[in-house]
């Protein structure tokens, strides 16, 4: 059909260009969509489901963990914003790593972020298929196949449709959290529902104190907390397709503090004031627990719908970002040239199709192991996502040093407190990775990293021998 015909004008001729202006994408994402993509990127299953496990490990002090981690996320996003205003490109942090750290860094970052979203897409479509069994007795692999095909088709039509889907997916998540906050506020002030007699802000410190498991317990939850924030950087990938990136992206990034304050810190304060932290356990959504405490039987169904939406939103983002990352690699001679092809509507057909085909592995996993499919593929997501954050910070530090020496133009959106805030965020992430190695449950996330690094290292050496251009420093248009 016409929407997926390849436009060669943006394909082979673009292969030698890595500039933001010559990427060939259509700027179809407006301010409304960019804002909701930014909001939705910070709200996922890590909050709706994963917070139950974190609360059981840290108690009310998890609120502080989210606040501190949220500050670090803001430093990361402001570092990304400084780079985006210097040169807004769809390749985003892969491009910046290539320019300021080196071709090999760009190669590793691009392929690792691509793999992150493929793995995330598999886990999320698996989760979505699991949530569907709440209402209907449908084989998981059938639901996974249908969701993958629908989201793949939507991403091929146009970037505007992707943005519209993300807008409504994010709207569901935001509405659910705001609704929960308002209900909890009503219980605390008016005292309605079954929880009205016991609900009180004093529950934040009366059930064993604010740090019932000690400060060590709080620190060990930081890895769970940081996992919840993965994908917040997705807004950077939209830079090449934003209608007015110089205006919309800074506004979206500057909303990070209040998003975290409301959707994470605010929501947890309210929920833990209504439900004692001792009622939470791994695998139990804090939202479900709150509804049960209130005596509202619809809670499980509501939360199931919301987490289904969150999973589909993440999978949709994966479809979007993987094609862009593969095309960026191809434009820089670090991936197959065929990935440069765009449809007439400006979507990377081959890269998106290749990634979606790999995501169909999730369908096979659901067919073979429907009971534990999620656990078989989720372990690599955390460490690969954090690599993108590390490269954002390192690239920003290198860029700021060059800008201060007058070698490159200054950004119009400087990160406040940099380079000190960037160094702090970088050390914080490295500390979280160390904690992942200490925690036996999280350690599996690190096992795949050396193997992936070996694959990338060997692949780069082969690529460098066959095509020296792939390993050469390039002059970037600014």
TrEMBL record:
<feature type="transmembrane region" description="Helical">
    <location>
        <begin position="215"/>
        <end position="235"/>
    </location>
</feature>
<feature type="transmembrane region" description="Helical">
    <location>
        <begin position="61"/>
        <end position="80"/>
    </location>
</feature>
<feature type="transmembrane region" description="Helical">
    <location>
        <begin position="36"/>
        <end position="55"/>
    </location>
</feature>
<feature type="transmembrane region" description="Helical">
    <location>
        <begin position="295"/>
        <end position="315"/>
    </location>
</feature>
<keyword id="KW-0472">Membrane</keyword>
<feature type="transmembrane region" description="Helical">
    <location>
        <begin position="256"/>
        <end position="275"/>
    </location>
</feature>
<dbReference type="GO" id="GO:0005886">
    <property type="term" value="C:plasma membrane"/>
</dbReference>
<comment type="similarity">
    <text>Belongs to the amino acid-polyamine-organocation (APC) superfamily. Amino acid transporter (AAT) (TC 2.A.3.1) family.</text>
</comment>
<feature type="transmembrane region" description="Helical">
    <location>
        <begin position="100"/>
        <end position="120"/>
    </location>
</feature>
<dbReference type="Pfam" id="PF00324">
    <property type="entry name" value="AA_permease"/>
</dbReference>
<feature type="region of interest" description="Disordered">
    <location>
        <begin position="1"/>
        <end position="22"/>
    </location>
</feature>
<keyword id="KW-0812">Transmembrane</keyword>
<dbReference type="GO" id="GO:0055085">
    <property type="term" value="P:transmembrane transport"/>
</dbReference>
<feature type="transmembrane region" description="Helical">
    <location>
        <begin position="420"/>
        <end position="438"/>
    </location>
</feature>
<feature type="domain" description="Amino acid permease/ SLC12A">
    <location>
        <begin position="34"/>
        <end position="467"/>
    </location>
</feature>
<feature type="transmembrane region" description="Helical">
    <location>
        <begin position="444"/>
        <end position="463"/>
    </location>
</feature>
<dbReference type="GO" id="GO:0006865">
    <property type="term" value="P:amino acid transport"/>
</dbReference>
<dbReference type="InterPro" id="IPR004841">
    <property type="entry name" value="AA-permease/SLC12A_dom"/>
</dbReference>
<feature type="transmembrane region" description="Helical">
    <location>
        <begin position="140"/>
        <end position="162"/>
    </location>
</feature>
<keyword id="KW-0813">Transport</keyword>
<feature type="transmembrane region" description="Helical">
    <location>
        <begin position="377"/>
        <end position="399"/>
    </location>
</feature>
<feature type="transmembrane region" description="Helical">
    <location>
        <begin position="346"/>
        <end position="365"/>
    </location>
</feature>
<keyword id="KW-0029">Amino-acid transport</keyword>
<keyword id="KW-1133">Transmembrane helix</keyword>
<protein>
    <submittedName>
        <fullName>Proline-specific permease ProY</fullName>
    </submittedName>
</protein>
<keyword id="KW-1003">Cell membrane</keyword>
<dbReference type="InterPro" id="IPR004840">
    <property type="entry name" value="Amino_acid_permease_CS"/>
</dbReference>
<feature type="transmembrane region" description="Helical">
    <location>
        <begin position="174"/>
        <end position="195"/>
    </location>
</feature>
């Amino acid at each position: 059909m016409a929407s997926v015909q390849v436009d060669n004008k943006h394909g082979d001729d673009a292969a030698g260009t890595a500039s933001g202006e010559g990427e060939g994408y259509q700027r179809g994402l407006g301010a409304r969509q960019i804002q909701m993509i930014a909001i939705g990127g910070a709200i996922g299953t890590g909050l709706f489901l994963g917070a139950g496990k974190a609360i059981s490990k840290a108690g009310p002090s998890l609120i502080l963990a989210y606040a501190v981690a949220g500050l670090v996320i803001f430093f990361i996003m402001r570092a990304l914003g400084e780079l985006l205003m210097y040169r807004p490109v769809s390749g985003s942090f892969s491009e910046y790593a290539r320019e300021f750290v080196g071709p090999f860094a760009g190669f590793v970052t691009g392929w690792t972020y691509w793999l992150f979203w493929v793995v995330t897409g598999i886990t999320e479509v698996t989760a979505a298929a699991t949530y569907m069994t709440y209402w209907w007795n449908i084989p998981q692999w059938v639901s996974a196949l249908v969701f993958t095909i629908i989201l793949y088709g939507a991403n091929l039509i146009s970037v505007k449709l992707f943005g519209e889907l993300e807008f409504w997916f994010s709207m569901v998540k935001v509405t659910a959290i705001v609704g929960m906050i308002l209900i909890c506020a009503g219980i605390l002030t008016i005292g309605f529902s079954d929880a009205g007699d016991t609900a009180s802000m004093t529950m934040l410190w009366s059930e064993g104190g604010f740090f019932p498991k000690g400060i060590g317990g709080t620190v060990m939850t930081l890895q769970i907390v940081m996992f919840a924030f993965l994908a917040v950087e997705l807004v950077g990938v939209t830079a090449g397709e934003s209608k007015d990136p110089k205006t919309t992206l800074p506004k979206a990034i500057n909303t990070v503090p209040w998003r975290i304050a409301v959707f994470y810190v605010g929501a947890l304060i309210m929920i833990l004031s209504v439900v004692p932290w001792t009622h939470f356990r791994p695998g139990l959504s804090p939202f479900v627990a709150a509804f049960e405490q209130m005596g509202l039987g619809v809670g499980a169904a509501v939360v199931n719908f919301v987490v289904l939406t969150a999973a589909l939103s993440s999978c949709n983002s994966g479809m979007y970002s993987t094609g862009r990352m593969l095309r960026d690699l191809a434009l820089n001679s670090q991936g197959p040239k065929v990935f440069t092809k765009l449809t007439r509507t400006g979507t990377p057909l081959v890269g998106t199709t290749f990634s979606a085909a790999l995501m169909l592995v999730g369908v096979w996993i659901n067919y073979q192991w429907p009971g534990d499919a999620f656990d078989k593929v989720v372990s690599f997501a955390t460490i690969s996502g954090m690599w993108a954050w590390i490269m954002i910070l390192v690239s920003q530090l290198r860029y700021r040093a060059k800008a201060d020496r007058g070698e490159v133009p200054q950004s119009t959106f400087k990160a406040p407190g940099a380079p000190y805030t960037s160094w702090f965020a970088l050390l914080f992430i490295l500390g979280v990775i160390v904690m992942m190695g200490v925690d036996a449950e999280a350690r599996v996330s690190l096992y795949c990293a050396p193997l992936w690094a070996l694959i990338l290292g060997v692949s780069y050496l082969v690529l460098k021998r066959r095509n020296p251009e792939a390993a050469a420093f390039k002059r970037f248009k600014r």
